[in-house]
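Q: My collaborator sent me two sequences in one message, no labels, and asked for predicted structures for both. Can we handle them in order? The first one she listed is below.
A: Yes, handling them in the order given. First sequence, followed by its structure tokens:
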Amino acid sequence: MTPAAPPDPTGAVELDPDGEPKLTPRVPLGGWLPGVFVAMAVAMVPWSVYLAITLPERYRSHNYDVAWSGFDAGLAVVLALTGIGLYRRSEWTQAAAVSAATFLLIDAWFDVMTSQPGRDRAGSVAAAALLEVPLAALCLLLAARLAGAEGLIRHIAGRAEHRRRLRESPTRNDDRTRP
């Protein structure tokens, strides 16, 4: 027999007026922070248009090899963290999986867009279509499932806490049944 789930240590489970558990975010999501992110996104639109108009089609880059090898090392780190997080069943696995998906999609984009026409481009498109984009989709699916699992676990923990409170209540919730 397994013991009842302990109360949620994060404090994420609260009870609504009817005594049912409700899930609340761990971090307050209101205030000025959402506006900052929306403003940054809006500011990126004219900036992207400006870059598309003013940047040269070709540009000789110094440290191109270091930039790509450093990026790929970062990709290796987030892929490893995703695997380690899955193995350990860590709470940060979802963030690692989303990071890995982001790295993979950026890698696919820049591989294709910076490749030379011909065999180089065909190889980049094949790698993007057969490896990087499907693996990114897998990482996002994994993150979504982990988010669902986390919500389910928090919900179950909240229900267990609610049942425990009802059992320990001296009135056993009799005043809820009175007219």
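Q: And the one she listed second?
A: Here it is, processed independently of the first:
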Amino acid sequence: MSGRLVAAFFFALAVVSWVALRRASRKSCISQIPGPKSPSWIYGKESRLMVSDPLATKFILNSPIFAHGAAQHKAANSMFGHGNIFLAQEDYHRHLRNIMNPSFSSQNVRRMLPMVKDVGMKLVDRWETLGYPGTTVDITQTMHEAALDLMGEAIFEHPFNGLTGQSEMAKIQRAVLETVSSVSKPSQLVDACLPYIPDFIFRLTLQLPIPAIRTLQQYINATDELGRQLARQERSNMSSEKDRTFISRLIKPDSPDATAGVIDEAIGVHVRTILLAGEDTTGNTLSWILYRLAMAPDFQQALREEVQLATANSGDNIDYENMPLLNAIINETLRLYSSLPFTERVAKRDCILPLSQPITTTTGSQITEMPIEKGQAIYVAISSYHRLTSLWGPDADEFRPSRWLEGQPCKGTALGPHASLWRFALMEMQVLVTEIVRKFILSLPAGDSTKPCYRLSLVAKTADGVQEIPIHIENVA
């Protein structure tokens, strides 16, 4: 049987399974909650509850009643591998956090600062070498290349050379992200079918000779080999506890009763997790920060003056935490352009969902809590939460960094990455934005049509369908 026929067979089997289960399903308990009508009996027919209510959001994200759904499990395990921290639960999740968190402690992140600054200077030099000043260019690629280099230099102590334009890891990682980020009618249907495909069949589909699957397998093989290479290097040069690296903390000690670390086969899983999370989310967020600065020349100039003042006072030893406008711009960009616009959870049992504000149902009655049945899929709408006027004020849709500088703290708290890696990502953004604004003036080209678009994360797309952020760049006089 040819590869095409095998793929067609399994695809048809998945569709049949999904349709059969949909026809057998009963009416959802959320059927009286207002929402858009389904445009198709296939696409969008499954009942999903979209939640941005602050009380309900907190309950869902912190309650053991809700867990990642079967589709998320299959997708994450196929991309990262089994045992990844995104899906780890309870004891194993605590075990992984105990391994990883020390690498991203405040002290260790501060020790990474010289490496981050070095990549920042390489990024500025790369723009000069490519002849960016005086032209309009897509800045997203170099932002992702810089983010990848930062992962390599500061976390893995391994050069990826993304900013040279010659990095094989950068090329294959971009190919993977573009593959998994593509959205089409067939891909939407496959996503809907994932929960109903038996695991053994799903594992077989990952061996099919399909270009997208080949790309993913190449990436898995490359990162597994990278993990083995890094582990060999660490074993030959094991450092003291004080100077241990991220990889050395992952390595399981030789003693048979050792509980620290992970097995060698799992090191590649965590290498992929850090690489993809670090490059994709940080690269995209950096791109959005530059876009908003190009859109707001007054804020850009004020930030440039803050950078110049900090440099005059401290030279190369800038205290980035003491730059209020820089941090306000980063926070406001993260609020408006959440790297993860929504996250899915599934109820493990029946429960009552609390609400901070009443909802009017389609029958006209008001409810202050909502019954949720076991198996109900829920989307926590992070982007919607970040634009609630009840939390952020009547100008919640506007880019206004000053909301983070006012005497009264914001009612809202931005939902975003947690602890550990986030400390490092924040420092990346502080340093790279500072270096760029110090050196270049950013502006939007005439007829700018850039819009946020949800893929694997939130990406930029122009009116002609190209995934890019065109920005005009000039040198600071």
